[in-house]
Amino acid sequence: xxxxxxxxxxxxxxxxxxxxxxxxxxxxxxxxxxxxxxxxxxxxxxxxxxxxxxxxxxxxxxxxxxxxxxxxxxxxxxxxxxxxxxxxxxxxxxxxxxxxxxxxxxxxxxxxxxxxxxxxxxxxxxxxxxxxxxxxxxxxxxxxxxxx
Length: 148
What we know:
Distance between the termini: 22 Å
CATH topology: Rossmann fold
Largest sheet: 5 strands, parallel
CATH architecture: 3-Layer(aba) Sandwich
Number of strands: 5
Shape: globular
Number of domains: 1
């Protein structure tokens, strides 16, 4: 593995309520060429607490990249996206929406709200792995992410 971002791991916040998707995502990124650290928020309220460094997340590192599901309990991913992009301290963090929805309205609204990529989650394991390897190749290797 190679380190990036000034010798530190790439910080990724995965906002996902499906434990199977969380496990699989962590496994795929564990085999990455790029050193990374994944924090997980299981719902929208937890994601915002993490990003705003409140409560148990007071010492959380600011993520370099956010992987966001739209269909979340407590606070919907659409609301989370809007709140992140409205916050001057957070709005520069790239966000990739990973969701089961391929509704045109969801895609349009996500891009209108400032999402950087919108990906429909595949149900096939091989496609899931391929998509996450593509995210790794593009977002962790090619793209220059904003520094903290």
